[in-house]
Specification:
It is built from ten helices and eight strands. The protein is α+β, with helices and mostly antiparallel strands. A hairpin with a 2-residue loop joins strand 3 and strand 4.
Amino acid sequence: MIRPILKTALAALLLALPAGAQTLTERNEAMFAQMQQIRGLSSAEISRVRQIFAASPNGWMGQGNPAVTQHPLTPEEAAARLGGSVAQVQSSYRNREYERICGEPFMVPLYDPATQSPRDATVCADMFEYPNIPMVYPVVWVRANEAAQLCAAEGKRMGDAHEWEGAAAGQLLPPDYPFDRIRGMGASAAVNTMRSLHNSRYANTSGTYSIGSWRSGVCATGSFKNASCNGGSFTGCGSNTYPAGSFPECRSPLGVFDIDGNAAEHMNLPLSEDQMASRGSTTLGVTEMKGSWFIWDTIRAHEHWARWRAPFWHGTRVMAEGSHRNYHLGFRCFRDVG
C-alpha cells in the first residue's frame, strides 16, 4: 500500500513530465492520488473509480491522449498567472461555508437568490469539471453512462438539465419539463418539442452566458484543434484543455467555474418524471451535451447560452453502453444535501 506522502510525490512527479512521456494509465494514477489527497476521497471510493476506468472500452477515458494532447498551460503556469503555487491556488478556491452546506470541498449550493439563501439549497454542483480539482485537467473520452457511474461512486449523481442551466444562469428554478406535451412521443421528437418550448420561454436570455455577455479570453476557450483531428479520432485529436480554474472570471453567478469553455459536459434530459436524477432516478433519460469547449473563441460549433437546450446530438439514453464520447466532452457531478 502506497503511503499518502508517497502518493502525493508520485502525482507531482508524473504531472511534471511532458504529456507525451506518460502513459494514460500513469496520468490517471496521478489524478487518483490527487483526488484522495486534495478532495479527500476514501480508498473505497477510489477503488470504485478505478474499476469504472478499467472497464471503459478501449481504455481511452482520462485527460486526453498523451501522444497528441498539447495543453496550452501546465498547472504550474496557470497557477503562476494567478499569483501563486498550485497548492496556494487550490486552497484559495475553497469556500468553508459552502463546504459546511455541501459536505465536501469544491462544491457550490444551487438556489434561487431572489427568494433563498445558500443554506436553503437542497442540491450542490461540482465547482469544476470532473475530477473537480482546481489546476487539474478535466476528464474526457467519457461516455454518459460512465459519467453517471463515476458520480455514483462518490455518492453523487448526474445533474438534470434544469439544474445545470440554473448553475450556469445563477438562478436554480423549479423544473419546467413539459412531460404532458411529449407523452407517447419517440425520443427524438420529444427532445425537439421540449427544446422548442424551453428555448422559446427563455428567448430573452439569448446571448447570456454564465459570464453574462460573451467576452473572448475570459474563459478557457482560446486553445486550438490539432491539425490531425479529422473526425474526432482518439489518435488524431488532442484534448487541448486548460487546468480547471485557470480563468477566475469564468465563474457563474452561483460560483460554478468553466461551464463555458474547457470541456463540454454530459447532462441528463428527463423525458418523464421517473427519469429525473433530482427525484432519485438511476435509469435516467437521454443525453444532452451542455456548454462550450476549449476552442470556442475560434470555432463556435453551435449556439449556446445559459438556459439554451441543444438538439439531440449523438442522442442515446444516458445509461446506454454506446452513449457518445469524444475528445472535448466531460462532465461534472451534483449532490443532494439536506
